[in-house]
Design goal:
With about 400 residues, the protein is of the alpha/beta class. About 35% of the residues lie in helices and about 15% in strands. It contains 14 helices and 15 strands. It has a 6-stranded parallel sheet with strand order 3-4-2-1-5-6, with helices on both faces. The chain has a 6-stranded parallel sheet with strand order 9-8-7-13-14-15, with helices on both faces. Helix 1 crosses helix 2, helix 8 packs across helix 9 and helix 10 runs parallel beside helix 11. It is elongated and about 70 Å long. The chain starts with 16 loop residues before the first strand and ends in a 5-residue tail after the last helix. The relative contact order is 0.13. It binds adenosine monophosphate. Adenosine monophosphate binds next to strand 12.
């Protein structure tokens, strides 16, 4: 996969109409519809400002929620237009449809330095189905396409990939940052390259482990997925999470790592509980876990082992919590990993989702080189998969 893509700096945008795919999928209050975090809108500002200041007319677009092709008034992007306008300090013209008369007329009248926002792309079923007529109608309003919604680049939708069949396609600043930092980590990492993987399921991360076995020097496995590996090593794991149909795979991975000289680290002690509950009393167990207990977090010896392994790393990628961090009593392992990354001095990359939330909540975000904005997209990136929303951009 080539991550070296043309950006908005590689094209003269003056006088051009730019179709800009943003990630305005903001969280909202269920009752009032009020935007509860405008982080994603704020994140889009640098690309938008660059385009406007350089004489482009910007037709921005995004999805919001999961309307699945239905026109759901609760999921209108109108509140986003309002917030974006406040942040930019200029009017954001809002179209009441996507490719309909209103959008077309407003796009045609749009002047350099002006910005408009189309209605929620997923109100039309053809967005997610990558309908060619829908993609073409979107493209027909503009001269060039800019992709700046990293969270959806792993989807081949009309606005993320389809439009590139009709328009020259460039990355915006957010997508470019993701590609340059994560792409470099995978293609040409500063070594040693350490991958820290956690979360609930082995099955979700099989392709990530496979791909990273080819690239990393050390792979650290924590979280619920570690117990299938411990079982594969012959340990008793009590009532811990187990994917019985993945035990053979886990064995294979351990053997493959050994054959390749990749260090493969698993927990050596665990904080266990008799039940899956926030109030459960933590019990520290080394070695075999008794049959009435389940592993909920990594123990102190494991924290030391894992922290030691990230010390001196050149590059670290982290995806997935080390334990059930939603419960305070079992959040210690995840916190300790966040701290170890923050203090490592390495190029540190945290995949979206839970690990990103943990790093932010714990106040380590500003000590991490890059926190990816796309959960699913960053996982597929680590799998080495071709991302349709990246593949469609012009190569440098
Ligand atoms: P994922 O979405 O695969 O990254 O998994 C995140 C989820 O894994 C979180 O909700 C954690 O609570 C859960 N998790 C982490 N460790 C464990 C564990 N030891 N047992 C059960 N669930 C876990």
């Amino acid at each position: 996969m080539n991550y070296n893509k043309k950006t908005i700096y590689d094209v003269d945008v003056k006088g051009k109409k730019v179709l800009l795919r943003c990630d305005f999928n903001v969280p909202q209050d269920k009752e009032t519809g009020e935007i509860t975090s405008d982080k994603r809108i704020v994140a889009a500002i640098p690309t938008i400002k660059y385009l406007l200041e350089n004489g482009a007319a910007v037709i921005s677009c995004s999805h919001l929620g999961k309307p699945k092709g239905e026109w759901k008034t609760k999921l209108t992007l109108a509140p986003v237009a309002k917030r974006l306008s406040q942040l930019l300090g200029q009017e954001v013209i809002f179209a009441s449809d996507i490719i309909g008369e209103d959008a077309q007329a407003k796009a045609a009248a749009l002047q350099p330095g002006q910005i408009m926002l189309l209605e929620n792309l997923r109100f039309d079923i053809r967005e997610e189905k990558n309908g060619a007529d829908f993609a073409k109608a979107l493209a027909d309003m503009a001269d060039i396409f800019v992709s700046d919604a990293f969270g959806t680049v792993h989807r081949a939708h009309a606005s993320t990939a389809g439009v590139a069949a009709y328009l020259p396609a460039y990355s915006g600043l957010l997508v470019n940052k993701e590609l340059s930092i994560m792409g470099k980590a995978l293609d040409d990492p500063k070594r040693p390259f350490v991958a820290v993987l956690g979360g609930a399921k082995v099955s979700d991360k099989i392709n990530v482990i496979n791909n990273l076995l080819e690239k990393a020097d050390t792979i650290i496995i924590g979280g619920g997925m570690a117990y299938t590996f411990k079982k594969a090593q012959g340990y008793e794991i009590g009532t811990s999470l187990l994917e019985a149909d993945r035990i053979d795979y886990a064995k294979e991975m351990i053997e493959k790592a050994a054959a390749k000289g990749v260090k493969f680290l698993l927990p050596v002690d665990n904080l266990c509980a008799a039940e899956f509950s926030a109030d459960a009393e933590p019990v520290l167990v080394e070695g075999n876990i008794p049959e009435n207990l389940m592993g909920m977090d990594i123990g102190p010896k494991t924290v030391e082992l894992f922290s030691e392994a990230v010390k001196g790393a050149g590059t670290i990628v982290w995806n997935g919590p080390m334990g059930v961090f939603e419960f305070d009593k079992f959040a210690g392992g995840t916190k300790a990993m966040a701290k170890a990354l923050a203090e490592s001095g390495a190029v540190t990359i945290v995949g979206g989702g839970d690990s990103a939330a943990a790093v932010e909540k714990l106040g380590f975000a500003d000590k991490i080189t890059h926190i990816s904005t796309g959960g699913g997209a960053s996982l597929e990136f680590l799998e080495g998969k071709e991302l349709p929303g990246v593949a469609c951009l012009l190569d440098k």
